[in-house]
Amino acid sequence: MRGTRRAPRPQIPWRSPWTPVICLVGLLSVAAIAVVGNLAKDVVLVVDGKPKAIRSFAASVSELLGDQGVQVGSGDLVQPATQARVIDGARIVVRHARPIKLTVDGRTTHRLVTATTVRDALAELNVAQAGGKLSAPRHRHVPLSGMSLTLYTRRTVYVFANGTRRETRTTARTVREVLKENGIPLQPGHQVQPAPHTFPAEGTLITVLPPRTEPVEPAVMQLNWAALAQCESNGDPRAVNLSGPYYGLYQFSLAMWQLVGGTGMPHAWPVEEQTYRAQLLYQRVSGRWQGQWPNCGAYLFGSSAGQ
Fold first, then answer.
1. 3-class DSSP state for residue 207?
2. Topology of domain 98-152, per CATH?
3. C or N terminus of the chain, fewer CB within 10 Å?
4. For the structural domain made of 39-95, what CATH number should be given?
5. Omega cis (within 30) before 245
6. Burial class (CB in 10 A: 0-12, 13-18, 19+), 83
7. Can you say whether residue 234 is alpha, beta or left, with left for phi > 0 and alpha for psi between -120 and 50 degrees?
């Protein structure tokens, strides 16, 4: 109809002058969310064997540990290293150092380990433990405050007693314990070398001599027994002369050996025992050595054999 006015058309939203601004803000927000999402990393932090899943924005391992309140000191183990970058899916391990007072076969040292069990601590310290006697179970946890460990390794030692020598494997702490393990009682007057309270190291020869109930006179002890032995047996305590037969350093007959309280075979005993029995024999015959050592007895009064 003529003269009729049309109503104004509604304004189209995307034709608004603010539309580009709103779109830009939206795009920037989406980009920011994407960037932030990419910065966050999911990692597993294991401190002294206890794992914990975390999400972190830290760039380095050091920064992550600081955010988590995990302190790292000298001797502590951190894997990867503190300066390494943190990547998504990483596993970061921290083991704090623990002081160990370690005594192996009587020798004590003070060490640091990052292992959390006794077994791993010994492996870290490169201590052989197969068959040894340990003061703590190998599965025991090593606390942060540390602990003391005592280990006695399994050793081969030799025992000479009652005229016989035997080889034995032991973790004993003392010579006395070795003898007890082998059923060798110590009677009053027994001579034990090394001393019963000492530590029997690898290859130790433990000698148990019978009681010496009869004293040797000082004048007899001062005779030249080394020269006599050199003449009789060339100084060989295990010498045997089948013509007698005669045995040992001083070529005892069995009858004379038993007369002075000897047991077993003379040449089976160490030098100290053979010499003691020879000195007793000299006293028993009142110094009349000619009947016992007719060819060599004069050397008792000389400086050396062969002079």
1. strand
2. Ubiquitin-like (UB roll) (3.10.20)
3. N
4. 3.10.20.30
5. yes
6. exposed
7. left
pLDDT tens digits along 22-60? 556 555 554 444 344 457 999 999 999 899 999 999 999
Cis status of the peptide bond prior to 200, with omega within 30 of 0? no
Which two three-digit tokens encode residue 172? 């004993």
- Which residue has 């030692």 as its token pair? 157
When the candidates are 1.10.10.200, 1.20.120.740, 1.10.530.10, 3.40.50.300, the CATH number that belongs to 218-301 is 1.10.530.10
Q: What is the pTM of this model?
A: 0.61
